[in-house]
Amino acid sequence: MAKVFITGASGFIAQHIVKLLLEQGHQVIGTVRSQAKGEQLASYIPKQFKSSFTFEIVPDIAAPHAFDAALQRHQDIEFLLHTASPFTYDTVNPERDLIIPAIQGTKNILEGANKYCPQLQRVVITSSDAAIYSNVDERNNKLFFNEQSWNNIKYADAVKDAVAAYYGAKSFAEKLAWEFLLMETPRFDLVAVNPSYVFGPQSWFCDPAHLNVSNALIGDLLDKKQGAGESSSEVSFENEIGGFVDVRDVARAHLFAMTDANASGKRLFMTNGHFSVQMMLDLINQHFPQLHLIKGTPGSGEKDISVLAQVENKATKQLLPWEFNSLETIVVDTVQQILDSKSKL
Ligand code: NAP
């Protein structure tokens, strides 16, 4: 079994990857921002896998040579998964908080790995569908996107707005990785995983008050109840739309990307269709009627998503030998875990 280095190990997607890696017998070194985060993550790991997990502290992936000390201590790694990157729209300085860490973090990990890890065979970068289309083009149903597509966001425009900055940051960072491969011709090859909105239960511990950005779209719905004297339509919610995929499929895709010979040089576009938050609300009301949530505009989901660009990820689905989970499975499993966690508080 292999020695695998994973950045951002305490993140939502990364914890699922760590779980699968340990279950498959790999030795895992994860980077986290602080001793406390490392100890917390280590405490979730089941007893039989504890000796297979260690963590390294990397407080800021954007700091010069951020990963060098950690990689020097683990020069015998064979695979590297780079998931760490900020995912938030809550910033007044998008360049500082989103773009620079995404770019510098990718540069730092690739340079460090190339310098210190002679046995490294493959790097997997967690990119995003945001690198495939811009936030504007994503909502233009006349456009078509697939694994070959890139957004057209310019740096000067990206710095002006947090959403454009996130989309720009993901393409700038992923392009940097592919260019690094061309220019530096390292010993390792590269695979990118490009998920759309990732939802699903947490791998080990669910804190309903601190869900990651994507799952908060589901978590927030559970507070949408009609107050006394209020009509259901008076309670508003953000009817976000986009592509969806289950975090468990995204984690599996990272392991596939890590080891499968056919994945080399590919971009795995991880999406299983389009969602609107209204569709999620309809599913919650169908499966959890006891919650008495607002109804919104039931059944309007297809109309909500009709504005979205057409996407195709046939090449990815042909490569990955399993069916992705449905929106229904994702929503039911996520809500059930949040309810179970709340009942234990
Ligand atoms: P997450 O839970 O916020 O994980 C992000 C991880 O990166 C966290 O461990 C975070 O540490 C770390 N990180 C962020 N900025 C950092 C910095 N400057 N220095 C050190 N560590 C830093 O989000 P996630 O959803 O799992 O995202 C993981 C990856 O998937 C990201 O690259 C994201 O762009 C990509 N992605 C996510 C989605 C989605 O819908 N969730 C969709 C497509 C792509 P702290 O938690 O300690 O800050």
Topology:
Elements: E1 3-7, H1 12-23, E2 27-32, H2 35-44, E3 53-57, H3 68-72, E4 79-82, H4 94-116, E5 122-126, E6 144-145, H5 155-158, H6 162-184, E7 189-195, E8 197-199, H7 213-221, E9 241-246, H8 247-259, E10 267-270, E11 274-276, H9 277-287, H10 301-305, E12 310-311, H11 314-319, H12 327-344
Parallel strand pairs: 1-2, 1-4, 2-3, 4-5, 5-7, 6-12, 7-10, 8-9
Antiparallel strand pairs: 9-11
The protein binds NADP nicotinamide-adenine-dinucleotide phosphate.
The site of NADP nicotinamide-adenine-dinucleotide phosphate (NAP) has 26 residues, from α1 and β8.
- Top CATH class of the largest domain: Alpha Beta
Task: Give the neighbour order of strands across the main sheet.
Answer: 3-2-1-4-5-7-10
Strand content: 15-25%
The total of beta strands comes to 12
How can the largest sheet be summarized?
A: 7 strands, parallel
DSSP helix fraction: 40-55%
Bound molecules: NADP nicotinamide-adenine-dinucleotide phosphate
The residue ranges in which pLDDT falls below 50 over 5 or more consecutive positions are none
- Report mean pLDDT, rounded to a whole number: 96
Count of the separate structural domains: 2
Radius of gyration: 20 Å
CATH architectural category of the largest domain: 3-Layer(aba) Sandwich
What separation lies between the terminal Cα atoms?
A: 38 Å
Succession of helices and strands: EHEHEHEHEEHHEEHEHEEHHEHH
